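Design a sequence for this backbone.
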């Protein structure tokens, strides 16, 4: 756990990427030539007889990561969406590059030139394996098809991860809808980076911040620090649902099912609307004027219709 948490707080797995990199570098330096030789010698298709890449490297690593309860909990179930996403990406990249990294001839294990005068005569007769790209691809496919890989993949609770991310998007959109309903279409509801708003205004042409918020929320679903490839179909469905939610809000307001403006009276207070302000009678009997506007259907407001249409 100490190595896994290196460089950050406990449980955030900030050392996972460097730990995986150290594993590959150490194994390649110590056993690279053996792995390459075995891949060439025992590649008797359709089934390889000795698979050191999968059974000798990946299976022990996967077993170790799943055996310790603390490490397993930190990696697969951190409880924070951003940490789970980072862990998944780090291990997915590690696994997808494992065969290539271990079977490629590195500079430290470069193939000697048999015609060189510096090579002893007997060593010129030694067999030096040459692993083809096709052999590397087959090795990678064996890793993915192994039962341990399937077991490893099931450890990730990706449906829960998607629900967390989609829930954040729904919360953001619902807040924008609530503020727009209270303050009208000109209400400032954008919660993203100011630089992003400026870019969207200039490149896309949005003016109302409600649409800036919706657009920025949709883009956020596909950010490199959010999206996971196995969830692409769910994220696409979620994006369509967010658009549908916004369209329904717009349509309901146009049809008069949702009234814009107005004021809701806090519990225990009486409100009297005079057209320009709402008079609130508090517990001491005092009357306070709160600026507001009469509830209205935005579809009846030509400026609103023009702004939304634009």
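Sequence:
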């Amino acid at each position: 756990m100490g190595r896994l948490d290196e460089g950050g707080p406990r449980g955030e797995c900030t050392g996972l990427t460097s730990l995986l990199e150290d594993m590959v570098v150490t194994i390649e330096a110590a056993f690279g030539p053996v792995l390459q030789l075995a891949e060439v010698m025992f590649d008797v298709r359709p089934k390889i007889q000795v698979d050191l890449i999968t059974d000798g490297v990946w299976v022990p690593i996967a077993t170790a990561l799943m055996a310790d309860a603390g490490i397993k909990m930190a990696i697969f179930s951190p409880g924070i969406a951003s940490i789970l996403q980072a862990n998944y990406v780090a291990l997915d990249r590690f696994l997808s590059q494992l065969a290539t990294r271990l079977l490629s001839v590195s500079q430290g294990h470069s193939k000697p030139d048999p015609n060189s005068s510096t090579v002893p005569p007997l060593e010129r007769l030694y067999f030096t394996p040459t692993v083809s790209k096709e052999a590397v691809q087959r090795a990678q496919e064996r890793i993915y098809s192994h039962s341990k890989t399937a077991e490893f993949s099931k450890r990730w609770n990706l449906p829960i991860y998607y629900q967390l991310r989609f829930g954040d998007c729904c919360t953001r959109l619902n807040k924008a809808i609530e503020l727009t309903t209270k303050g009208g279409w000109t209400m400032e509801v954008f919660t993203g980076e100011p630089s992003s708003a400026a870019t969207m205004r200039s490149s896309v042409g949005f003016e109302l911040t409600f649409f800036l918020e919706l657009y920025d929320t949709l883009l956020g679903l596909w950010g490199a620090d959010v999206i996971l490839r196995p969830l692409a179909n769910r994220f696409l469905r979620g994006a369509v649902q967010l658009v549908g939610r916004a369209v329904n809000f717009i349509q309901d307001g146009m049809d008069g099912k949702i009234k814009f403006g107005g004021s809701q009276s806090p519990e225990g207070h009486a409100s009297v609307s005079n057209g320009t302000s709402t008079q609130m009678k508090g517990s001491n009997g005092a009357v306070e004027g709160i600026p507001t506007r009469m509830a209205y259907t935005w579809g009846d407001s030509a400026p609103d219709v023009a702004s939304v249409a634009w």
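Residues 140 and 219 are 33 Å apart (CA to CA).
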